[in-house]
Design a protein that fits this description.
With 161 residues, the protein is of the alpha+beta class. The chain is built from 5 helices and 8 strands; from the N terminus they run βαββαβαββααββ.
């Protein structure tokens, strides 16, 4: 369950909220804190919004608690993925180790339909090494700086812009 907890702007209120969650043994998988808002993704079987409200009832300054579909970061990631998927050229974002961080729909099609074993082996490309999918040696490209390069995948040069 993901929740948005609106509160007054008081020093330490987010810490009190997190301590209340810990006291109850609720497993938090993500937390985001903004002024007057604490967002939490709680992985707990059979947890109800009323349980959270009761757990936070003794904390001074809680204004409201409501269930939300996505945390703010998840909303931004979802929005950016939709924008990325609208670009017709394949885009693969990798870190300086060569690990795939993000791909768009064109890349997914290119990488997972290239061979049947590739599509069967990797349901998700995120987190995989880009070395598995490309023929070129890219170790010299892997730096902390942002760069753009052209790759050859299955004998076809993929343009960049």
């Amino acid at each position: 369950m993901r929740v948005e907890i609106q509160s007054t702007d008081r020093i330490g209120i987010s810490q009190e909220i997190l301590a209340a969650f810990a006291k109850r043994g609720w497993n938090l998988t993500a937390v985001e804190v903004n002024t007057c808002f604490t967002f939490a993704h709680i992985e707990q079987q059979a947890l109800q919004l009323s349980d959270i409200s009761n757990g936070l009832a003794n904390i001074t300054g809680i204004v409201s608690i409501k269930e939300i579909a996505l945390l703010p970061t998840e909303q931004r990631e979802h929005h950016l993925q939709i924008l990325l998927d609208r670009i017709p050229e394949p885009i693969i974002d990798i870190d300086h180790f060569g690990t795939i961080l993000a791909v768009n729909s064109a890349s997914k099609k290119l990488l997972t339909t290239s061979t049947s074993t590739t599509s069967n082996k990797f349901a998700s490309l995120i987190g995989q090494s880009v070395d598995y999918f490309i023929e070129q040696k890219i170790s010299s490209w892997l730096t902390p700086q942002v760069t753009t390069h052209e790759l050859t995948i299955n004998g076809t040069a993929q343009p960049y812009w």
